[in-house]
Design brief:
The mean pLDDT is about 85. The chain has helices spanning about 1-50, 65-75, 80-95, 105-120. It is about 75% helix and about 0% strand. Helix 2 (about 65-75) crosses helix 4 (about 105-120) and helix 3 packs antiparallel against helix 4 (about 105-120). The protein is an all-alpha fold. It folds into two domains: about 1-55; about 65-120, Orthogonal Bundle (Helix Hairpins).
């Protein structure tokens, strides 16, 4: 009698293990078939929402313009002197060459501030 119970328990464990393996197999098959579709849909939604466009994607112009100066400092082209000064200070604290920032970016930040200063006078 005891032998029969042990055998039934082992058999039911094997059946459950087999069902678990089958479920994992079918789940993996489903994911591999639909992974491309899901990733493509997510990419389209991210591009459409502009979630990845937080930063300006493009280089610097040959000559500084009002628009470019505003983009560099993060202010509108018609910003006041106080806003320009605050933005310059904030950005230079983050990008100063003495603190590990890029000298080229620091020069562009200073050039943007100088552009606003010369055109606001």
């Amino acid at each position: 009698m005891e032998y029969r119970k042990d055998r039934e328990i082992k058999t039911s464990n094997l059946i459950l293990a087999g069902l678990g393996i089958a479920a994992v197999g079918f789940g993996g098959r489903y994911l591999t078939r639909h992974a491309k579709t899901v990733t493509q849909t997510l990419k389209k939604q991210m591009d459409a929402s502009g979630a990845l466009s937080k930063y300006y994607k493009g280089g610097f112009d040959a000559k500084m313009s009002k628009r470019e100066a505003g983009l560099i400092l993060g202010v509108s082209p018609s910003a006041s002197k106080v806003k320009v000064k605050d933005a310059h200070k904030r950005i230079m604290l983050l990008n100063h060459p003495d603190r590990g920032g890029s000298p080229y970016l620091a020069s562009k930040i200073n050039e943007a501030k100088d552009y606003f200063d010369s055109n606001k006078a």
